[in-house]
Amino acid sequence: MKQTTYAFIDSQNLNLGTGNDLYRNNKLIYKGWKLDYQKFFIFLKDKYRISRAILFIGYIKENENLYKKLKSFGYEIIFKPTVTDKNGKTKGNVDAELILHSAAKLIDKYNKAIIVSGDGDFYCLYEYLEEKNKLESIIIPNRKSASSLLKKFEKYKLLIETKKLKLKFRQKNKGRSA
After folding, report:
1. How many CB atoms within 10 Å of residue 91?
2. For 81-98, how does the pLDDT look when each residue is reduced to its tens digit (9 = 90+)?
3. Angle ∠(171,31,20) on CA atoms, nearest 5
4. What is the DSSP string of 5-52?
5. Is residue 145 a contact partner of residue 10, using CB atoms and an 8 Å limit?
6. Which domains does the chain carry?
7. Pfam families this protein is in (predicted)?
8. Residue 90 in contact with residue 84, Cβ under 8 Å?
9. Distance, CA of 76 to CA of 78 (rounded, Å)
């Protein structure tokens, strides 16, 4: 039987985890960089032979062009409705959708799962997938923002920051990044 591997991607964790600078006590501890989403998709295909890369993202109408570009790279997108808080910040936490799809809706369709997030909120999902022998890898944007809850799953972890040279968006690839 052919092995089928799906990647479940927490888009906000991936985007903020690679792209944002992190400070501790006013000292820069991680310098953010721009991830090339097309290169990342190819990386997932080459390294893990994924059948599907499912990106969970909060829907914002003004981002339609971004969504089209991501789909053109090969990502499937599952949208979460968003709300705007009193400060004007848009919120669209996708954790529940990612867990629902990976642990219930699609669990019988794949042999191995890759979860892209450094978020400790997925601890129960990692345990469940490990019990089912379906956890292939946990891809974490950077070690500085990875939850300490993930220590138990050390053997599954891969840090995207270690692939920065390969996955970084370069301006000469104009129009290729999302």
Report:
1. 11
2. 999 888 988 888 899 999
3. 80
4. EEEEEEHHHHHHHHHS-EEETTEEEE----B-HHHHHHHHHHHH--SE
5. no
6. 5-173 (3.40.50.1010)
7. NYN
8. yes
9. 7
